[in-house]
Design a protein that fits this description.
This protein is α/β, with parallel strands linked by helices. It is built from 15 helices and 24 strands. The strands form seven sheets. The chain has a seven-stranded mixed sheet, with helices on both faces. A six-stranded mixed sheet has the order 9-8-7-10-11-23, with helices on both faces. Strands 5-6-24 form a three-stranded antiparallel sheet. The chain is globular and about 75 Å long. It starts with 6 loop residues before the first strand and ends in a 9-residue tail after the last strand.
Length: 481
């Protein structure tokens, strides 16, 4: 029997008139079922978030900390259930799903700690004679109901990067989880209900895009936080009106391998970074620029390591490469690679779809303007390029409309510092791949890769606004000498 996961609106579990069956990408079996929210459902959720904010926005810190700690404890308690659900609805290998759940616990626990550190300032204002006796107090206040839209590739943790800081900062949130993998956050809603999270603080509603447009355009939301594709994200920003927008939009992450790098380590990390979750990761390694002195060695090692990846059932702990999210994703990837070959690229290994599975693919001699280089492939493929110098590698890496994160393998401090100064990305990871992330660091991109930053502390800054109180001590003129 298929488990049902109702919508969560205003502290109640509800159904709608449009059922949604979520299927396992591995074998097409039902992972569970839910419903797509109607326009009326969404309206009810928005009103609930507005109403709840009037009281939750003034909830003392210790209450918010306690709620987050309880939620983290609940997630630990249901850890195996959540891992299993991610494997079944997202097709994520069980080892990677385990890491995601453990990171989810860390994200919530970090939010509980950051809730204690939402601080302000006391500033002197008597810098001119006319301001004698005055000083200012700056305090951060929650901004109000938040619209969150999260993607399928990390159905738990990327959603928690919106939900946890919202709760920590005293805001309410309406979350649209991905229709391809909505069940995980509907289960989290059940856990939130069990700990007594006040009604209306969290609302979780899968919905189609036309219904979800209201999340973007409705002025009752005071912030839109979106993680997804660049084309969709920037269109949302254009339609969002005056509300602030946080965009995490991915890219075509680059790696630069210097001639003095630890090559064995670099290859092992590139293998992970390019093929984790079948490349369906915003910071998946897509372009690798290798100093020509070590190019042949690194190329051959990457090809060898990639061809040994174990494809199979994501529920099997031995599986390293599971299916892509749907047939369309696999077919699209095969088409892009065929286009690259027609433009002169050479496939060194892989290149073919096997149903929803896609062979781990390594390409060289690709045209930098081809889709597999210039756009976000979101697939298990990596392109390799020789460069004559470290400086050329930086220039080639920067030749992209994206700039989320970059990885640099070098043992020269001066090259590491140069990379940090000159690479156009939100993060430069030295001696590791751009796929590295820990959940309290600032995470986000430049250029077409996004706007603002996630990471709990940094998300809280977007979810709160500074407010100034000026105090004029009227007795300051009469103080005794």
């Amino acid at each position: 029997m298929t488990t049902e996961y109702p919508l969560y609106i205003d502290g109640e579990f509800v159904q709608s008139g449009q059922p949604l069956t979520v299927t396992n990408p591995f074998d097409g079996t039902p992972a569970g079922s839910t419903w797509l929210a109607s326009a009326d459902d969404l309206e009810r959720a928005i009103v609930a978030a507005q109403t709840a904010f009037r009281t939750f926005g003034t909830t003392p810190v210790f209450d918010r900390v306690d709620l987050l700690k309880q939620l983290a404890a609940k997630l630990k308690e249901r850890r195996l259930d959540v891992i299993d659900l991610i494997v079944r609805e997202a097709g994520k290998p069980v080892g990677e799903a385990t890491v995601e759940v453990d990171r989810g616990v860390f994200t919530i626990e970090t939010a509980a700690e950051e809730a204690k550190r939402i601080q302000g300032d006391v500033i002197p204002l008597d810098l001119l004679p006319s301001s004698k006796g005055r000083f200012g107090i700056v305090r951060r206040y929650p901004i109000g109901p938040i619209a969150g839209i999260s993607p399928f590739n990390f159905p738990l943790n990327l959603a928690l990067h919106k939900v946890a800081p919202a709760i920590a900062s005293g805001n309410t949130i309406v979350l649209k989880p991905p229709t391809l993998a909505p069940l995980t956050m509907l289960l989290i809603a059940q856990l939130a209900d069990e700990i007594g999270l006040p009604k209306g603080v969290l609302n979780v509603l899968p919905m189609d895009r036309s219904t979800g447009d209201k999340l973007v355009e409705d002025d009752r939301f005071k912030l839109l936080s979106f993680t997804g594709s660049p084309d969709v994200g920037w269109d949302m920003k254009r339609r969002a009106g005056v509300k602030p927008v946080v965009l995490e939009l991915g890219g075509n992450a680059g790696v630069l391998v210097d001639d003095d790098a630890d090559l064995d380590f670099a290859v092992s990390r590139i293998r992970m970074g390019a093929f984790a979750y079948a490349g369906q990761v915003c910071i998946s390694v897509q372009r690798v620029f290798i100093h020509e002195a070590v190019f042949d060695t690194v190329r051959d090692q990457i090809v060898d390591a990639s061809s040994k990846l174990r494809m199979g059932d994501p529920a099997n702990p031995a599986t390293e490469l599971g299916p892509m999210i749907d047939d369309k994703a696999a077919a699209r990837t095969e088409s892009w690679i065929a286009d690259a070959v027609r433009e002169g690229a050479t496939i060194l290994t892989g290149g073919k779809a096997q149903g929803r599975f896609f062979e781990p693919t390594v390409i060289e001699n690709a045209n930098p303007r081809s889709f597999v280089c210039s756009r976000e492939a979101f697939a298990p493929l990596v392109t390799l390029f020789p460069v004559e110098s470290f400086g050329e590698g930086i220039v080639r890496l920067n030749d992209s409309e994206y700039g989320l994160q970059a990885g640099v393998f070098t043992n020269r401090l001066e090259n590491a510092l140069t990379a940090f100064e000159r690479i156009e990305a939100g993060g430069v990871i030295i001696n590791d791949v751009p796929t590295y992330r820990i959940d309290h660091m600032p995470y986000g991109g430049v250029k077409s890769s996004g706007l603002s930053r996630e990471g709990i502390r940094y998300a809280i800054e977007d979810m709160t606004e500074p407010r100034l109180m000026v105090i004029n001590r009227l007795d300051s003129q009469r103080l005794p000498e």
